Amino acid sequence: FMAGSLSATATTAQSLAAAKRSLVGQRRPVLLSSPITEPKRWFQNSVVTRKKRDDDGNDESKGLKKNPKASDEESKKPVQQEAEDKDEGVKESENKDNAEAEEAEEKGGRRRRVQRRSENDKAAADTAEGKGSQAPRDPLAQLKRAVGVADYAQGQQSFIPDNYPNVMMLPITRRPLFPSLYKSIQVQDPQVIGALRELVERGEPYVATFMLKDDEKDVDSIKNTGEVHEIGVFSRIMSIYVSPNPEDKHLTVALYPWRRVRMKRILDAPAAKADEAADKGSSEVPKTAAEGEDAGSTGSEVVDASKVLDSIKADYDFTAIEVENIEDEPYDAKDATISATMSEIVSVLREITTMNPMFREQIHHFASAQVSKAVFENPSKLADFAAALSGGSSEELQDILSDLNVATRLEKALVVLKKELMNAQLQNKISKDVEAKISKRQRDFYLMEQLKGIKRELGLESDGKDKLIEQFKAKAETLQMPAEVKKVFDEEVGKLAHLEPAASEFNVTRNYLDWLTQIPWGKYSVEDYDLQRAKVVLDEDHYGLEDVKQRILEFIAVGKLRGAVQGKILCFVGPPGVGKTSIGKSIARSLSREFYRFSVGGLTDVAEIKVHRRTYVGAMPGKVVQALKRVQTENPLLLIDEIDKLGRGHQGDPASALLELLDPEQNNAFLDHYMDVPVDLSRVLFVCTANVTDTIPGPLLDRMEVIRLSGYMADEKLSIAQRYLAPQAKEAAGLEGSAVTLSDEAVGALVRNYCRESGVRNLKKHIEKIFRKAALKVVESGVAVDAVDTADSGAESKEADAADAKAEAAKPRRMTVPSSYSLEISAAGLKDYVGPPVFESDRLYEQTPAGVVMGLAWTSMGGSALYIESVVEATVSNGSSSGEGSSDDDGAGRGRLHTTGQLGDVMKESSVLAYTYVRSLMNRRYPMNKFFSNNIIHLHVPEGATPKDGPSAGVTMTTALLSLALNRPVRPDVAMTGELTLTGRVLKIGGLKEKTIAARRSGVTRILFPKANLADWEELPDNVKQGIEGCPIEWYEQIPALVGLD
């Protein structure tokens, strides 16, 4: 129900303004009906219209003009009676004018209505903007003109007709309307909206509202009477408003309910047909609801209204109904029961207003209308008013509306008001209980603070919270917090001081302050810029890796010149086991920096990097903040391991979270969600490791400086094993200082026959296994002796405690190997320690047959030899199948190629391209050789369990097919790599160093590689190229002469 309910008998400007404000709200009026006292051009011929319109000075018009100063009886004189006093000549002229106007209206059609609507809208807009030239200057007159409510106090007549049988029906939901109480409803049906606009424009702004029986149903028209209740109200449209939001298509209609009506039927046929006789004077004019009383409407008005309804019905689809007025049953206003019920209703209303502010505001608005006395003295109006204010159910309110017995209606209204009173009392009780609990907490807090103050004054020991706050403040004094962080710290400390230790937020704040003071704000480790020391440290821990060592020395040199070192982001990319992770520790030691490592391999939760906010249960800072707490310095070396194996899941993309962390332009103010303060990471040296760069997102890879670590060669592995791996494994096996040794030949055999991978991790495992088995032999031989002297342990053992003696006996005693015992592990005895050799040789063929060529491949484990084999599967013609001069003209074009070896899509395309190119080459060089036309070729790549892909085997496949076609083998000491185009050009490839290492391991003396890789070849170390001839190739036609096929 609307907050500002007003009675229809409001007379003052204050009540009218309140009604206008309550209806308009925040909406923009787009169509206001003209005052009902003004004429509409469609009905210029009607008596009521002419009575309002004619003011030009003629006698007839002046006779019909209403006199505002007339007495009440004269002002209520029926308009129809005044019209009958006019002469017949005037009536005939009026009827003639009426017929002409109707005929012109029918011819004008919809176009004239649209034009008039546009004119009315424009006039309304001009009036709203203050531009209307005919707007009344009197404010009260303006309000009356907009709202259209007559002034009953001055005795003016209401222009709401008492007899209006045919009317447009609007169904409403959940709450019915009650007479004399304003209400606004919303209409969404475009057809009904158009009909309402037409009603207002044509001066017939009347509708009947009935409540739907189904509360869940929300429609603007009905098809049968059973959808709504029988009793409703006849209402006048006060104003129509549209939402300022263009997407909101509904219309808000402000209604003033006038009287109760009963719906008789839904009008299917035009209503005007039933009243045609009224125009001709052959039918009786409908009577008003109260017989014998003249309410100011005539039969001419009813006929005109029916015509308007039929005209609108022809253009719009809405529900038109026939209604009849209903009156209350006769009652005695002085009846004791009625008077007592009214007094009780007023008492309940007064009691509710003391508890419910909304009721109080509604009653206040109602009382300000100066008509509350009339309502409170009228039993029928008081019952309606009480029901409208209550929050009863839709069935209860409709029952009150339908009840025509005033006494029972008052009783039902009192029942719903009593329910409202009980609800208000319950709400008041709940509110008081909540206030009492809050007051108790405030009282307890006040007393607790007083108790703390008394203890403090007496010098008694303070509680744990005060000590905790003092500890936080003392720790913060030792840190150089930035101003922003210091401000947050002070705020959190102040919050902690006002929290009770039992509160859940107390632990959250305490943990946050603990982390805030654990970060080493302003603490830096002293860096060492000594280049010579850095070289020694790097060489002590790692053999080779010259690129990495050179980059670290450059980093130190720049820091020495500038006096300060900014953080960098390095990424070491290489096969497993080449020392990517361990080199990070060596770099930190050479720079005198703290070291912290964490792995992101398989990480799918972005919260590990940016974490959750501290409001979540169990939240804690991310990996970076944890690292700073651990190392207690703001310039450590952070190693992010396995960055190429980052995952992605429903919890976010960690790679995207690392963008801010690894960006030198942003990480000076890295924001951890838990800390929620900027952390400076600009001096942190980030080192990332990866096996490949293909799986690293491009934006992340762009932020890092990539340094590639190639695999180790055999001589490098030998040196690493002798200098690092063997001594470490010997010490771990307990053989330190003994004469147990591993010969160089044995290490070389391990590298050649057991550990061919690029790294040294597998080599380390085998060496450790050898020394463990050697330790087993030493212990089994019985030559080991106790290392602890137990000669004088007897006296001491008597005085020892029994528990200590038992613990001492449980400890294993260390033994040593006598210097007289020696054991040398040779290459011949390796099989006793690590089993038979895994690899005999990298070469599959000592002498390659025709159709077989050695290629070179690159994997994440390093380089390897890749053989390409081709054979003739079947001959499809009787001609010769080999030889330079062989020819056969039959069956040309029936040869084909198929491949095996688990090849990827790119490698399959390379084989097709090689087959096409070699056929083209054969046609140019050996036009009489029809080998490929007469044979089905099978091309295979060994090690079929291993997936293979890439374009660099193009020249190798072509050479294999050419060797098969010419039936000539290639040189066995030649290997090749390169991508081939369809025209025979050889394109650049990657991993030349790894492939060269693999070729050398396979005993190759000549490598064919693309000319575009010549710069990469020249940068290779001499020990890698030693004994190998490099042949840069630009076009494939250079290859046959180099491999012995020319």
From TrEMBL:
Keywords: ATP-binding, DNA-binding, Hydrolase, Mitochondrion, Nucleotide-binding, Protease, Serine protease. The active site is at S952, K995. Its main location: mitochondrion. Its EC number is 3.4.21.-. One of its GO terms (biological process) is chaperone-mediated protein complex assembly. It comes from the Eukaryota. It is an enzyme of class 3 (hydrolase). It is found in: Mitochondrion matrix. Residues 847-1046 form the Lon proteolytic domain. Belongs to the peptidase S16 family. This is Lon protease homolog. It comes from Coemansia erecta. The gene is PIM1.
